[in-house]
Amino acid sequence: MPAPLDLDGLAKGAAPPPSQAMSRAERLESDDLTVVLGAFGRSELDPLVKILVEKDFITKTKPLKDSDAYKTGGGDHHRYIPQIAEEIRWWGSHDLKDASEPRSYRAVVAELCEKAEIPVTDTTSVFDMERLMVKKRVDAGEMGGSTVGTVVGAAAKFGILRLIGAANPVGLGITAAWTLWDMMGPNHKMTGQCVMAIAEARMRLWCAAMADEMEVVG
User: Fold this and answer.
1) Distance between CA atoms of 63 and 106, rounded to whole angstroms?
2) How far apart (Å, rounded) are the C-alpha atoms in residues 184 and 187?
3) Exposed, middle or buried: residue 113 (CB in 10 Å: 0-12, 13-18, 19+)?
């Protein structure tokens, strides 16, 4: 049994800035959410932004949709990635006594793993935490149709089945809210939806990036 993850120790603090020499695959493997989102295209950021701006329940004092960066961004999501990341982290922090400094994204994902009874340790990367969450959802048979073409297509082409450890994710709809988190209140519903949207895009793009690197080497 892995040692439990120290959520309190992860609650604050940001990862160091990434090297400019990082490949796309390396950026997608990062624990730093802003680095990961910077490697996404607009089509990958669109579902995430939609989750954050179209929510219909009480939110923070100045949510993403009211930020100056969002209002002046003209739909270019890359212009307000820090605000996207900050809001996701806030949703994973606002149930604490003092949420003036949001938890790290790593701590947010680790808490979801804990709630879903997914064992992780201090050395488990965020990328692997997301992978384990996707695997558990596939194993539980919670399926939908929203991302069948993209995820299953990537699985067939780049070996994503091995990555998530699932044998048959036919009909997988990763971006839908996991029922477990739907029952936990708005904070976990939000972070659950956001993290699963990030996990789907991250795994698909990482597979494509690795395939591109192998083609270059070959």
Assistant:
1) 21
2) 8
3) buried
Question: Secondary structure of the chain in the HEC alphabet?
Answer: CCCCCCHHHHCCCCCCCCCCCCCHHHHHCCCCHHHHHHCCCHHHHHHHHHHHHCCCCCCCCCCHHHCHHHHHCCCCHHHHHHHHHHHHHHHCCCCCCCCCCCCCHHHHHHHHHHHCCCCCCCCCCHHHHHHHHHHHHHHCCCCCCCCHHHHHHHHHHHCHHHHHCCCCCCCCCCCCCCHHHHCCCHHHHHHHHHHHHHHHHHHHHHHHHHHHHHHHHC
CA-nearest of 85, 111, 84, 83 to 11 is: 111
- 118-48-82 Cα angle (round to 5): 95
What's the pTM value of the predicted model, to 2 decimals? 0.73
Q: What is the pLDDT of residues 92-110, one digit of tens each?
A: 876 544 456 778 999 999 9
